[in-house]
């Protein structure tokens, strides 16, 4: 027994030793192979293959583009993520039977949410994707069986399901839909993120805010978006995708840096007033284009700026930066410049008189004509103040000849002294000479100074001065002689902190003598009280300003008129300066009756808006001869406004958040607007802010056409509401 046990033990030890030897040999082979892979060229090859199969390097992380805000923090432009929806039919866990089971229900759900395709179309797209995957799979197998080393293009990995990109809210919702409510490796659902630019106020200040290229990565194409593109766009990050346990994961190598935010000087309410007033007059006069700018006197902040061009369909939309690019001869608004220079040089006094006769004056065989010359009316002598009031070209030309005929250089030096020939940079990108004043100088070899240049320059010809310069000049008069540059970009934020704050640039601390300034101010008051801008006068506050009507030079001849008005209000304590210009209006051209009426509408509505913000400062009460028309909308806001103005108002018959407003001779009346969550609300008569808020709160998408008050809506009030449907609002 003992001998047998010893033999068994030897046999066991022998077998154990043999196994150990084999294991050691295997371990040595593994170590040898590992060393070979680590230290030889073959190892480098396999490492590259491994990375290629499991790592996708150097993928760009797009930064969030900076936001653009109004002066009080309302969004004018922002970046939001949108998602393109695809399906990967090669997803490892996708099951054909499960797909067939749920594809009908999924398609029906999709067409309810995104009705641009029918349920049958969605089903066809999805099943075609699966059939494509099967076809590719068969081709791969056939190639293997035949020993063909040929790559089969895989097109079923990214099959686009939804026609349009969707928001993150919609993405969360579709992930709850049948079949897509599984993990992505089973559903094949792919959401490809991209940044998109959104303008919450629609087309408000569209030209000033600007636009991006269709490919947002290319950056700004116009306006502030282009001017400050390098600050808004941010810095790209870097990531790589790595396959971990069969699932691709994003690993951030370098995070993206968000772009800076810009706070502008724009006031959304004043901007809306400005655009609406300008558009209404352009439609009325069938003008080619127009611009309107309103600027805060003391700060230089542009509160509203509209640049509207006529479209081929007859409507008007933001197009060229007309406030800067109108390189027209300014016409009679320039007469104030001539008068200021001559008064300051002691050439004239306001009471000096000049013979105008029937409005015709010949100088060097060229006729200077006043607007009334065809009537045959003999006006005899006019003082300087009277000449300004009726906008006499004859008076202006005789002023210029009296003081500067023998020394025209002194006249242009006087314009230089004011600051109108200074070259300035602006907050919008411009081309060529746009945004600069082109005023001739006697010794300028490029712009020939003729024998008649001086008198014609005196009343606004022979020079090119864009609206922004005229606005700046008249604002200087309103600002006690201190000329400051109008601006739009006010503050720059990085990660919520102010990194740069813009203050108005002083172009000229003193344009003229105090006495001259007061004389000019009184003349501009007379223009509105008794002269060519009498129609511009307001019942609520005094206005000072000057009309302009100039023929437009084109191809060596004149064709069409450019009418304008520039002034400030209230004239006794100026708050705002406004420039309005209309190019080629139909009918009898009138700086007062056309451009001046736009000025008046903007001024009065802005003033009442200021009343709403600061009632005590304006001291307005119910003795006003006219009462403002209120839009339908939020009852609390409307009631607060009317009570602050001491106007009589009756509460609605029942508690209501939204009301229709009506005015009669006695008081304002309100009628409740019934809001039912399952029915389309009635937003007719509301402003854009209230209408968009109420419709989006109901789950609808909103598309705005025009500006002002809602006149019609594409979905009839009271019809059944389908969330996600787009409603188009037409505004006037």
- CATH hierarchy, class of the domain at 268-616: Alpha Beta
- Give start-end ranges of low-pLDDT stretches: 614-625
Number of strands: 30
Helical amount among residues, as a percent range? 25-40%
> Rg to the nearest angstrom?
37 Å
Count up the helices.
Answer: 22
Biggest sheet details: 7 strands, mixed
CATH superfamily of the domain at 268-616: DD-peptidase/beta-lactamase superfamily
Structural features, described:
About 40% of the residues are buried. Strands 2, 3, 4, 5, 8, 19 and 20 form a seven-stranded mixed beta sheet that branches. The protein has a six-stranded antiparallel beta sheet with strand order 11-10-9-24-23-22, with helices on both faces. The chain has a three-stranded antiparallel beta sheet with strand order 1-6-7. The model is unreliable at about 615-625 (pLDDT under 50). Among the domains are: about 1-40; about 270-615, Beta-lactamase (3-Layer(aba) Sandwich); about 620-670, no CATH class; about 675-730, Trypsin Inhibitor V, Chain A. The radius of gyration is 37 Å and the shape is elongated. It is built from 22 helices and 30 strands. Strand 2 and strand 3 form a beta hairpin. The protein is an alpha+beta fold. The chain starts with a helix and ends with a strand.
């Amino acid at each position: 027994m003992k001998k047998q046990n010893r033999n068994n033990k030897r046999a066991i030890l022998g077998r154990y030793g043999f196994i150990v030897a084999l294991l050691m040999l295997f371990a040595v082979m593994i170590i040898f192979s590992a060393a070979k892979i680590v230290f030889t060229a073959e190892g480098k090859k396999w490492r590259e293959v491994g990375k290629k199969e499991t790592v996708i390097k150097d993928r760009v992380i797009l930064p969030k583009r900076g936001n653009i805000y109004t002066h009080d923090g309302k969004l004018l432009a922002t970046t939001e993520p949108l998602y393109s929806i695809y399906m990967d039919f090669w997803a490892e866990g996708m099951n054909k039977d499960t797909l067939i089971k749920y594809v009908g229900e999924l398609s029906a759900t999709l067409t309810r949410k995104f009705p641009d395709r029918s349920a049958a179309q969605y089903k066809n797209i999805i099943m075609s994707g699966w059939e494509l995957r099967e076809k590719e799979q068969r081709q791969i197998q056939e190639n293997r069986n035949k020993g063909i080393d040929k790559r089969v293009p895989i097109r079923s990995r990214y099959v686009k399901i939804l026609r349009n990109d969707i928001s993150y809210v919609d993405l969360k919702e579709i992930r709850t839909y049948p079949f897509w409510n599984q993990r992505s490796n089973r559903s094949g659902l792919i959401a490809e993120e991209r940044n998109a630019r959104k303008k919450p106020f629609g087309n408000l200040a569209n030209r000033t805010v600007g636009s991006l290229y269709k490919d947002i990565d290319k950056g700004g194409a116009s306006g502030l978006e282009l001017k400050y593109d390098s600050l808004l766009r941010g810095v790209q990050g870097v990531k790589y995708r790595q396959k971990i346990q069969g699932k691709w994961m994003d690993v951030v190598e370098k995070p993206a840096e968000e772009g800076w935010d810009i706070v502008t000087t724009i006031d959304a309410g004043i901007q809306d007033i400005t655009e609406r007033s300008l558009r209404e007059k352009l439609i009325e006069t069938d003008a080619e284009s127009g611009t309107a700018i309103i600027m805060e006197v003391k700060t230089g902040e542009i509160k509203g700026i509209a640049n509207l061009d006529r479209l081929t369909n007859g409507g008007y939309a933001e197009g060229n930066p007309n406030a800067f690019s109108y390189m027209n001869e300014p016409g009679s608004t320039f007469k104030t410049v001539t008068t200021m220079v001559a008064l300051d040089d002691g050439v004239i006094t306001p009471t000096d008189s000049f013979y105008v006769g029937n409005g015709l004056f010949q100088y060097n065989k060229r006729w200077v004509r006043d607007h009334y010359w065809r009537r045959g009316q003999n006006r005899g002598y006019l003082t300087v103040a009277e000449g300004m009031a009726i906008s006499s070209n004859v008076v202006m030309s005789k002023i210029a000849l009296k003081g500067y005929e023998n020394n025209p250089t002194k006249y242009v030096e006087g314009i230089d002294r004011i600051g109108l020939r200074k070259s300035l940079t602006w907050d919008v990108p411009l081309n060529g000479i746009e945004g600069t004043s082109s005023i001739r100088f006697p010794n300028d070899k490029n712009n020939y100074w003729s024998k008649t240049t001086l008198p014609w320059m005196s009343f606004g010809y022979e020079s090119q001065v864009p609206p922004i310069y005229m606005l700046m000049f008249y604002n200087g008069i309103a600002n006690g002689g201190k000329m400051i540059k109008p601006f739009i970009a006010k503050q720059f934020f990085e990660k919520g902190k102010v990194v740069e704050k813009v203050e108005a640039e002083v172009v000229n601390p003193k344009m003229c003598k105090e006495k001259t300034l007061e004389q000019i101010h009184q003349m501009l008051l007379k223009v509105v009280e008794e002269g060519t801008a009498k129609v511009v006068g307001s019942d609520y506050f005094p206005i000072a300003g000057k009309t302009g009507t100039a023929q437009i030079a084109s191809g060596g001849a004149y064709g069409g008129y450019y009418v304008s008005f520039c002034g400030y209000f209230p004239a006794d304590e100026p708050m705002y300066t406004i420039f309005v210009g209309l190019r080629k209006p139909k009918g009898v051209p009138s700086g007062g009756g056309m451009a001046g009426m736009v000025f008046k509408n903007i001024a009065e509505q802005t003033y009442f808006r200021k009343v709403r913000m600061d009632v005590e400062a304006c001291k307005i009460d119910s003795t006003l001869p006219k009462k403002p028309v209120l839009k339908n909308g939020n009852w609390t806001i409307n009631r607060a406004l009317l009570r602050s103005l001491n106007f009589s108002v009756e509460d609605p018959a029942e508690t209501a958040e939204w009301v229709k407003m009506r005015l009669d001779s006695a008081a304002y009346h309100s009628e409740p607007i019934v809001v039912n969550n399952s029915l389309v609300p009635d937003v007719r008569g509301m402003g854009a802010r209230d209408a968009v808020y109420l419709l989006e709160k109901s789950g609808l998408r909103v598309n705005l056409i025009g500006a002002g008050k809602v006149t019609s809506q594409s979905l009839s009030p009271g019809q059944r509401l389908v969330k996600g449907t787009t409603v188009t609002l037409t505004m006037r």
